[in-house]
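Readers of this paper often ask what the protein records in our data store actually look like. An entry from our holdings is shown next, in its original layout:
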Amino acid sequence: MTDTTPKEIPSDKNLVYMVAYLCIKDLENLTEQVKVLDRFDLTDAERAQICGSAIQSTRDARQKIKGKR
């Protein structure tokens, strides 16, 4: 019998940061990076730190994404 209960994401933020960085490291621009990072439930400051950019730049990228929808 297989267990079908959803697995919980570890609460260790360092692990989440590492996985998030690995997911975006090869992406070309900030908008694409922020789009992927939105799936990790991170704050604007955390997104900016992972992307190596300013907080306002990540906020602007999120607004750009929302505008395309």
Summary: Helices lie at 13-24, 30-37, 44-51, 55-68. The chain has a mean pLDDT of 87.
